[in-house]
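User: Hi! Is it possible to get a structure for several chains at once, not just one? Here's what I have:
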Amino acid sequence: MAIFSSLLGVAWRSLLYRFSGVLLTIVSVAISVFVLLGVEHVRQEARNGFASTVSGVDLIVGARTGEVNLLLLSVFRIGTATANVSWSSLEQIQAQKNVDWTVPISLGDSHRGYRVVGTTQEFFTRYKYANRQALVFREGSEFDGLTDIVLGSRVAAELSYKLGDSIVLSHGVADVSFTHHDELPLTVRGILAPSGTPIDNALFVNLSAIDALHEDPNAAVTGPSRASERSDSLTEQAAHDDREAHDDHEAHDDHEAHDDHEAHDEHQSDSEHEETGQAEEEHAHDHPTIGSVTAVLVGLDSPIATLQVKRWADNYSGEALLAILPGVALTQLWELVGNVEAVLLGISILVFASSLLGLNAMLLASMRERRGEIEVLRSIGAPSFYIVGLLVLESLLIVTTGILLAILGLLFCIALANDLLVQSVGLMLSSHIFSSSNLLSLSLIYLTTLVVPVLPALQAYRVSKSVGGGSPDS
Amino acid sequence: MSTVTTINSLSDAIDLQNLNYTFQGSSLPVLSIPAWQVARNERVFLQGESGSGKSTLLGLLAGLQLPTRGEVDILGTRMSALGAGKRDRFRAKHLGVVFQQFNLIPYLSALENVLLAAQFGTSGGQAARQRAIELLERVNLPSSLHHRKAAALSIGQQQRVAIVRALINEPSLLLVDEPTSALDHNNRDAFLALLFDVLADIDCAMVFVSHDPTIGQLFDRRVRLAELNQVGGLG
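Assistant: Yes, the chains can be modeled jointly so their relative placement is included. Here is the combined structure:
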């Protein structure tokens, strides 16, 4: 015990004595470890972030296309639908045994480059990401009426929208669109907290509103109201549209009626544009025809039934449907874009190798300048374990300090960079940097630190056979 | 730290028999000494030029290495009978070593250097500390310098700390290698005077190696390594 505390004291003083050199070594270890842990963490997080884009959804059903296509369309909102899912199919899906809930999503318009998604209120409670994490409202709440709109965090930040702001939707996916729904301003009702998923880049409106924007009010009403027979939330919102509900919600319905009126007006102006063939085509492609949706998110009451329901949907006779398991499709998609991961993995390995080599070179170089000290220690009868222990302890102190600095630096940088990353690439880094591969790297570094100084230290112990002078014989 | 070979107080401090040392991979020996003894409490001046094999001899006497052939008995203990670890302990406990320069760990204070040696030897704790401070003052190192880093001391001061360090465990044999080679003339004389003064009331044999024959007059016995060593001129 006394020997060990003496060893620690001597090692500590030795490091302080060589402060500037030690500091440089610590910094270089810290930088290597920082890059090593950082690159590996980003690699893991990119993969995890990707895989956790959607969770809690058992199946996604859309018109028959490629699995990856449907995923891109329904989750990442990339591309356009070639066909849609009709209301009657939606009802059939909802009617299936084991189907717990369905959330239709209708992809259509864009607003200044961000896609607008028509869906139901249930979307906000059913859609999960990461480890079954629910969407959180940073401000406000889910949409209620037809003129409410909910913004993804990035949309709100980039376009500087606040609660209560008025937004006029344009028609079509392009940033600049010449068919504006000038007549129907929507009010920002809620802004979502950042999730690091494509949710951040979307605007959400009531599914009925999308229909109301584009078709004559009668069609807009008939679509959702049919679906409402099965879905509670649809029933609720359909009630707003349903003319027969006027008596029950007089004040509110006055407002709704007004909305419908506006929608109607808007549509009239819209159809004027559609008289040109180009506008007609754009319209047809960018949102589902009325009475249909782009895709349906499906939740089951038992995961065992997943394949059964998938098979049913794939073989559904009424319409050419395709059901995908989000997790499986995400993996497929990741394999397509997974080269990035391979590159990052390659970088991690190189960084790891170079940091180990650098560390070893540093330890071996310092061993040469310690020869004199080792001779002094030998002449006063220091045992070999003391000499080896001193050098190993010093290396451990250097490496541990470097690693601690790297970890603190990394956590600090993650905290600092997260806002920026979510905004720019939609990637949210967790602070869980101790993945199994990172722990493995760190233990390998420690193992090297333990092993590398032993050989030269033992050699120095054996070589110092004469008393002083630093040369074997004179 | 307890099991250290007991010292036969009747035996010589140094007893070499048919000593032969050849560097590994070399066919010519560096040292070949048929027989040589140093009695207890005897102070011997060993005159040797650079390259005469004196550092090798000191390494053998200190138990830092073993002879190729023959035996080295120090204080009645046969070095070849001890393993490396036991020789380390033997050296820590019974031998004191002072060499040319760089005797001290530069980042430890004068006192810490002495106490580190005490820790490897028998002594330790408060008694050793007390003794270290007394000895440091004995070699004219004022207490203001006791806590100064060795690297910040002058070479003369460092060599004086080295004497204290060598004596802290009350060794029976002191090996001194050219301790004055880095000192100027005045400092050299002062150092030697101090060394003999400190040793005056200590029972301790000493082998003092130097190329400078003028120092030899201070000693009981003067030996030329060239006469001892049958290899002569080689090495």
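Chain A has two domains: 2-50+338-463, 59-324. The first strand of chain A starts at residue 59 and ends at 63.

User: Great, thank you!
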